[in-house]
Amino acid sequence: MSNKTLTRADLSETVFRKLGLSRTESSALVDMVLEEMCNTIASGQSVKISSFGSFLVRDKDERVGRNPKTGVEVPISPRKVTVFKPSNVLKERVLEAHESKRGADTDEAFTAEQEMRAAE
Description:
This protein is one of the two subunits of integration host factor, a specific DNA-binding protein that functions in genetic recombination as well as in transcriptional and translational control. The chain has helices at residues 8-19, 23-42, 88-119, and strands at residues 47-49, 53-60, 63-66, 73-76, 79-86. By secondary structure, the chain is α+β, with helices and mostly antiparallel strands. The chain folds into 3 domains: 1-43, no CATH class; 46-86, IHF-like DNA-binding proteins (HU Protein, Chain A), CATH 4.10.520; 87-120. The chain is extended and about 55 Å long.
């Protein structure tokens, strides 16, 4: 599992390879989809992508925060925020990937320990 971030360019490249569109068309398609999602969320509506998750707009009430340097209380005004709620399918895939990686790490550690004992 890498720490690489999936970028707009990566999405465009995947569309290019899998659909056979030109790179320009692939980039335009990805831009259109992301623009539509942004416009929908900005208008206060939710975006649901089946087997992936939902982007929701939530209202946050006014609250009191603190300046971490001075400790002075500061009122934080009410606002709207975007949140992501993963689908159960995505949650399960993440859990499976985590468990398989953890199992592979355990297997590697076990093998390394066996090799060390054999070398003694």
